[in-house]
TrEMBL record:
<dbReference type="GO" id="GO:0019887">
    <property type="term" value="F:protein kinase regulator activity"/>
</dbReference>
<dbReference type="GO" id="GO:0006417">
    <property type="term" value="P:regulation of translation"/>
</dbReference>
<protein>
    <recommendedName>
        <fullName>Clathrin/coatomer adaptor adaptin-like N-terminal domain-containing protein</fullName>
    </recommendedName>
</protein>
<dbReference type="InterPro" id="IPR016024">
    <property type="entry name" value="ARM-type_fold"/>
</dbReference>
<dbReference type="Pfam" id="PF25786">
    <property type="entry name" value="HEAT_GCN1_C"/>
</dbReference>
<dbReference type="GO" id="GO:0005829">
    <property type="term" value="C:cytosol"/>
</dbReference>
<keyword id="KW-0677">Repeat</keyword>
<dbReference type="GO" id="GO:0034198">
    <property type="term" value="P:cellular response to amino acid starvation"/>
</dbReference>
<dbReference type="InterPro" id="IPR011989">
    <property type="entry name" value="ARM-like"/>
</dbReference>
């Protein structure tokens, strides 16, 4: 085989990236190296050895090193997943399924997010996981939701949320989909607020997918929207803010679908506008602005006064429409 200088240089950079991720003490340097390694992998044809090295180093790692390795693994699968052989993908799948049970919440979040990446479709419209593996995964997630230990319950919800982000059609078409929705509903009452927050985020992603792809399923739509509305009254301000961000994201994607259910969300949003927590109040303002389309005409400003005062309605209608994002960024593990 003729010597290819470009390929050799890429391989050297990849190997250097692995070294930095594994041995450097500085978290910032490790994180930067992990991101670069993921992008470099897209330029290399020798991805299997790289993934194998990451998995091997993962076994004996902990703390920040383990997080950096998982971040690098996510990047490699995101940028070069199509070049990973089925045998190596199976090994990744097995390791990650174990890690969603892990005691460390960051490890659970990383593992859940990477599993979501594994379920999404590649460029040739074929998912990286085999159908039987995806079915097995959904079955395990449904059963883990009943675990007496909160860490596996949390891991299952994180993974369900990740699936709704990366491969929503796969989970929505599963025979276990109704059971999954019921698990999310039950988790909104869990004593652990991270489970309630993750369930709220998963429901928001489900509703967003349905609003974009299948708004005709009105029964499910109203059911999920009602659950999100109830989450705006949660004891945790993080859960309340998450619910408001989820409703806002759906309103921005399909305004008419939300506007037609004003009676469901109106009272909840009005209460949130008086929340004692400032970030929640600000989230409520943005949510009302988009949910009731206050910048689209005086008739909408008038209609929303069934739920909020005229003074508030006019004030909110003057907010800049495009000054915020969807509130659902997933580049960090905390939002998996």
């Amino acid at each position: 085989m003729p010597f290819n200088l470009d390929s050799y240089l890429i391989l050297c950079k990849v190997n250097l990236g692995i070294l930095i991720v594994v041995i450097f003490d500085c978290r910032t340097v490790r994180s930067s190296a992990a991101l670069a390694l993921g992008k470099l992998s897209g330029l290399s044809t020798r991805v299997d050895p790289l993934v194998g090295d990451l998995l091997s180093n993962l076994q004996g790692s902990d703390g920040g090193v383990r997080e950096a390795i998982l971040s690098a693994l996510k990047g490699v699968l995101k940028h070069a997943g199509k070049n990973v052989s089925s045998a190596v993908r199976n090994r990744v799948y097995t390791v990650l399924k174990d890690l969603i049970h892990h005691d460390d919440d960051k490890v659970r979040a990383y593992a859940a997010n990477i599993l979501g990446v594994l379920t999404q479709s590649s460029n040739n419209n074929r998912q990286y996981l085999e159908d039987v593996q995806l079915t097995e995964l959904v079955q395990e997630l449904a059963s883990l939701a009943n675990s007496p230990s909160w860490a596996p319950r949390h891991g299952s919800l994180l993974t369900i949320s990740s699936l709704f982000q990366h491969s929503p059609s796969a989970i929505c078409s599963s025979p276990l989909f109704p059971a999954i929705v019921d698990r999310l509903r039950d988790s909104l009452k869990d004593e652990k607020f991270p489970l309630r927050e993750t369930s709220t985020k998963a429901l928001g992603r489900l509703l967003l997918y349905k609003a974009q792809m299948d708004p005709s399923d009105t029964l499910l739509y109203k059911d999920v929207l009602s659950m999100l509305a109830s989450s705006t009254h949660d004891d945790s301000s993080e859960v309340r803010r998450r619910a408001l961000s989820a409703i806002k994201a759906v309103a921005k994607a399909n305004p008419s679908a939300i506007l037609s259910h004003g009676s469901i969300i109106g009272p909840a949003l009005a209460d949130s506008l008086k929340d004692a927590n400032t970030p929640v109040r600000l989230a409520a303002e943005r949510c009302i602005l988009h949910a009731f389309q206050l910048t689209k005409g005086p008739e909408n400003v008038q209609a929303v006064q069934k739920f909020i005062t005229g003074l508030d309605a006019r004030r909110l209608s003057k907010l800049p429409e495009y000054s915020d994002d969807s509130g659902d960024s997933d580049e960090d593990t905390s939002s998996s």
